[in-house]
Amino acid sequence: CESVHLKRLGVAMSNDPCVALAVDRMLKGESQCTETAEFVKLDEPPDRSGNNVLLDLRKVAAGEVDSVLVAVSTADSLVIRAGMWIGDTDFYLVDPIGRQVTPDTAAVDPDIEYTNDGEVRGYHLKSARTGEWTVILDAAEALDPAEIFVTGIEYSDITMQASLAAQEITPASAQVVEVVLGWGGSPVIGASVTGELYDPASGQFGLVLVDDGSGEDEVADDGVYTTDIAGNAAIGQYTLELVAVGAYGSDGVFDRATTREYYVAQRPDLEVLTTDISMPAAVPDSVPLINVYATLRNIGQAAADSVRIQFLEENTHLVFADTTLSEVAAAQEVTLDASWPVRIGSSERQLGITITVLGNPAEVVLSNNTAFNTLQVTAVNAEETGLPHPRFETRCYPNPFNPSITIWCSIPNSGKIDLRVYDVRGRLIRTIVKGIFSAGEHEFRWDGSDKDGRNAASGVYFCVLKSDQGTETGKMTLIR
Fold it and tell me: Who contacts 288 (Cβ-Cβ below 8 Å, separation ≥6)?
């Protein structure tokens, strides 16, 4: 509510989104309330894990009815509030089977608590159905438009965490699925945990997960239910629907469900077998060359339609040249014999090649596709060779990466730089560095986490380097 008195915002209120928005609007001078009102906070279930399922500011015109859908998946209880910032509406709920939850039904149902302080109203459903709920904001009888901030939190006594040994496996490999059930920090034992597996060939198979110390289950009665999935012959996506049913405490019962997916695929995987990098004697009035001779092999189960080979310096991953090979069959060996011009000054350098299969970001075995040799490079004069001076640019390596990536930057002149990571939608994920740096080469590391410290999901990201010299963008692929 906008008229919440600041002195009443104690520790108990600090996490409430209604209060957070109210304070923000008051500080910005946007509040349209002048009187001080008390905030009546619903009693929240103790010792339960909460999950935000709704956070929305709705504008409802006079004479209209608005609705908000809320997906409730694991709730033992549910709290939904509506803060009337501007104007007023009727506020009620419709549960997944079409039953209305109103102040009148709350008055006769001991499992529903309704509170109303005039500006903030709320329903606390002590036993909530899972499924799709609807929040109704009814301004059909109102004369003025309204702005309502609605929030929803589902609370669970029982936690259910499901995981797979691998997100992608090869044909005929075994998959291991694990479900962990907990209650107030203690394991839930004696539950019935089952699954239905749907394969790409439209097959359906039943599974039973056990917590008896047999098979893949390492310890009996620890709340960890496990089984292995054999077969996995068909290529494509597998969907696993898991259900856990059981009892806890003196008289509590639960019914949980979740879904996981994994893939069976054949992919190429390139490795470097041998590599020889040398610098022949310089020829007067010519650009010095570095010779690269290497043999490669596709150790994967599928052909690689396109293989990219890059010649680069190990410390900076500055790419001097690259080439592309097409159609490298499974088990095939290929030879690379090429010469590239020198683009670095006199020093001992770690030079080498790295190979990647284009169009296959799921190729996660990257440890064997890079090889470097130490080479004493003879001095080269940029003016004599016509090669460019150091310029403003950025490189990312290794790429794809897991769990972290190094972002290398070359800055011709001292000045301010701003390095940030964005996702494919253009949303800021993390600010890596912002400040004044000297001219030269710099390296920064991104550990794959967002600005809140949470692990970013697998996918494509962009590092954007800005300075007085311009803007450079690098593409990065994170594989979890």
Answer: 279, 282, 341, 342, 378, 380, 385
Sequence-distant (≥ 6) Cβ neighbours of residue 409 within 8 angstroms: 393, 394, 417, 419, 441, 442, 443, 444, 465, 472
Tens-digit pLDDT profile for residues 306-333: 787 877 777 666 666 677 777 888 899 9
Lookup result for tokens 């990219």: 308
**pLDDT tens profile 291-305:** 888 888 888 888 888
**426 φψ region: left (φ > 0), alpha (ψ -120 to 50), beta (else):** left
Residue 149 vs residues 53, 373, 462: alpha-carbon distances, Å: 14, 62, 34
Pairing type for strands 440-446 and 428-437 reads: unpaired
Question: How far apart are the C-alpha atoms of 108 and 101, rounded to whole Å?
Answer: 11
Q: How confident is the model at residue 346 (pLDDT cuts 50, 70, 90)?
A: low
Query: Residue 106: helix, strand or coil by DSSP?
Result: helix
Listed in sequence order, the DSSP H helices in 88-167 are 103-108
Tokens of 413: 């002149």
Task: Assign residue 202 a region (left: φ > 0; alpha: ψ between -120 and 50; beta: otherwise).
Answer: left
Q: Name the pairing type of β-strands 112-116 and 120-125.
A: antiparallel
How far apart (Å, rounded) are the C-alpha atoms in residues 308 and 324? 4
What DSSP string describes 328-359?
A: E-TT-EEEEEEEEE--S-SEEEEEEEEEEETT
Q: Residue 166's Cα: distance from chain center in Å?
A: 16
- Can you say how many angstroms the Cα of residue 250 is from the centroid of all Cα atoms in its chain? 38
Quote the CA–CA distance of 94 and 110 in Å, as a whole number.
Answer: 18
Do the beta carbons of residue 356 and residue 336 sit within 8 Å?
no
CA–CA distance, 177 with 170 (Å, rounded to integer): 16
Q: Are 260 and 164 in contact, with CB atoms under 8 Å apart? A: yes
* CA-closest candidate to residue 72, choices 156, 5, 15, 9: 156
Q: What is the DSSP letter of 314?
A: T
pLDDT tens readout for residues 53-105 = 788 888 999 889 999 888 876 666 789 999 888 888 899 999 888 889 999 99
Question: Is the pLDDT reported for residue 198 higher than 90?
Answer: yes
Residue 316: the pLDDT is 64
